[in-house]
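ugh ok fine here u go
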Amino acid sequence: MYEVFNNFVNFANSIIWATPFIVVMLGGGLFFSMHTKFVQLRLLPTMTRLLISREASDKGTSSFQAFCTALAGRIGPGNITGTALAIYYGGPGSIFWMWMLAILGAATTYVETALAQLYKRNIDGEWRGGTAYFVQSRFGNRWFSAICALAVLIACSVCFPGPASNQTSAAFKTIFPNSGWLSAIVVTGLLGLIIFGGIKRIARTAEIIVPFMSVIYIGLTVALIFSNLDRVGNAFGMIFMGAFGLDAAFGGILGTTIAWGVQRGVYSNEAGMGLQTYTGATAEVSHPAKAGLVQAAGIYIDTLFVCTATAIMMLVTDCFNVVGADGTFLYIGQGSADIAVFAKTGETGVPVVQSAAATLLPTVGPIIIAVCMAFFAFTCLIAYYYLSESSLTFLFRGNTTKTRKTATMVLRVVILLVTFIMSNNSVEAVFNAGDLGCGICAWTNMAALFLMYKPAMKLLKDYEAQRKLAKGTPRERDEAPFFDPKKVDFVDQEIRDVWSDINREKIDAANAG
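structure:
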């Protein structure tokens, strides 16, 4: 049964991740960048200032909490294992294409999150929204919106938990060889405690863990890079030369380099997948564009900082292998004795990153990576659960509260079982399943964005116009704009009522003035 499932996943991925997918993701990012006049670069200071807003309510989370919850889903196996896989199959040049996807994808992230905010709804006393919600609100198309919700539900409950729990087990097994099932029990048990606490507990947990784990991991990588400072220039040279097939060692895999860079980039930062739309919609903001700008900032932290730090750490320590399409190794690193062993066994992922850390801190380095990986993976699992629950809520929105609660309970059990079972499968199998989930989410979400991106453009124009007229410090001007639904003629009455209620005082004050 396992072999049949894996063969099906590989076949599906060969279709989903074909060349058109690369064109859609890179081309889509460029399309939205041009339409927003490269908002991800123009308003970068504004993104940073909006990020620290902590306004929240009983219905929603603060922008910072929503950002941390979304970042919890981005920073995880994709940043450590995913980066190692990109270099393993695509060479150092794949990192450049991860960067390109991140920069262009930040515009995509603005569009999808702004739309999620615009069309959010109050369900059971909490803000809910996402791709499925805005497709339903904009077009009234139940079948397409249901497909979008189902894609996220399947991906986040069945496909994505495996890589997170698996790589946590892999990290600890390098330190404690027989700890695989023990780590699976611990991770699954802790996840159960969190997910039965609701979105408020999820947001508070992410708000605490995400900044802490990011600082620890970046601190280690920076220390390791500075200890090999003379090799940093060569590392970046390998990335840029490899990106365009100019490196003699990796010139023959240019197509693979681009494909793996885009593939790992999508999996890592989730730009275009629509996952952060569900967390972005929960933010308590006065203007939908604000949430879009905050979530766009997360792309930079995820890829340009965390993934890059992982890649440079591997390259400067010469702890990486590169394999060709025929299985022949194009390069075997010399930075650690473990690397040659990994080449013989075909092992990659977090153990390779741990071998790089061990070159600076032989005993402590792998342990720090294992602990960081555990935090990364755990917060990913929390985010995946929330995304699954949001999609389930949408699919069961017409049912009674009792029915929704029963379905939610079943969902929790499924995620906990998948988390436990997949902990000790092969890294190839679990990441293939993750890629399948990533692909189905991206295709459905990008289709929705191309169909209805224009409202996001109007929101940005309205936000920038208000900001330009606002007075005060830069931060005060950033926070001054508010959304008046009367200015937009393409939202339904329920959405108008939602935003009229959110900004009632500001709208009344503006009218009185």
